[in-house]
Amino acid sequence: MSVTDAQPRVALVTGGSGGIGRAVVRRLAAAGHPVAVHYSGSKDKAEALVAEVVGNGGRALAVGGDVADEREMTAAFDRVEAEFGGLDVVVHTAGVMRLAPVAELDLADFDEVQRVNVRGTFVVAQQAARRLRRGGALINFSTSVLGLQFPTYGAYAASKGAVEALTLVLARELRGRDVTVNAIAPGPTATPLFLEGKDQDTVDRLAAQPPLERLGTPEDIAELAAFLAGPAGRWINGQNIRSNGGIA
């Protein structure tokens, strides 16, 4: 089935109750997309966001599930398709970050990061590859840390390197499907995930590094996601795009 520019493009945002995910949901809903707000442990936040979207005249649905569990994600995708009649855009923002020097990182933390960020991305991408309609878009999330090489980010950067590799391969595997696959690599962005564990001096130092001399906002990243999800982004494919104010 083909989706024209005039038809609403149904979107699923994983991690939709989180900082960047929430901004993406709001931006896509404002553009007229019916949006499924995925959550793992924040059902109340997801349902509150759904109520906000619906209250503003949009269509939204909350769906739960562990992104690394193929059964739970199959059920989540099934529910989105049953509610909205199909699926055109998947924005995969869900992820975790554990910071420590390589020599000191607990391997249980390493395993969690790889399970959620690598396996979770693979599971979601697999479902998207099977289900997205012609004209669809899959948008994964990487990190600009891959170009910055910050100490303590070893496990996180390793997981996002895998996300970038998967994104480029899948874009080529979907030849002939008219489905784009890209990754957004945010720089330092003022989200709870980024700010957790950082003192004000560290935040100020990171904010001063880009030529634009500020942290990114979730809304900055959501604008790029909306571009890639919409008709204006159809010629962007198989790219890892750093959205970071010029920091790297």
Question: What does this protein look like?
Answer:
With 248 residues, the protein is an alpha/beta fold. The protein has one domain (11-241): NAD(P)-binding Rossmann-like Domain (Rossmann fold, 3-Layer(aba) Sandwich), CATH 3.40.50. 46% of the residues lie in helices and 14% in strands. The chain has helices at residues 19-30, 43-55, 70-84, 107-131, 145-148, 154-173, 192-195, 200-208, 218-229, and strands at residues 11-14, 35-39, 60-64, 89-92, 137-141, 180-186, 240-243. The radius of gyration is 17 Å and the shape is globular.
Report the top-level CATH class. Answer: Alpha Beta
The helix content is 40-55%
Give the end-to-end Cα distance, rounded to a whole number of Å: 40 Å
- The fraction of residues assigned to DSSP E strands is 5-15%
Please indicate the count of domains. Answer: 1
* Total helical segments: 9
Radius of gyration of CA atoms, rounded to a whole number: 17 Å
Number of strands: 7
Give the overall shape. Answer: globular
Tell me the major beta sheet. Answer: 7 strands, parallel
Order of helices and strands: EHEHEHEHEHHEHHHE
CATH homologous superfamily placement: NAD(P)-binding Rossmann-like Domain
SS-derived structural category: alpha/beta
Q: Spatial order of the strands in the main sheet?
A: 3-2-1-4-5-6-7
The averaged pLDDT comes out at 94
Q: What is the CATH topology descriptor? A: Rossmann fold
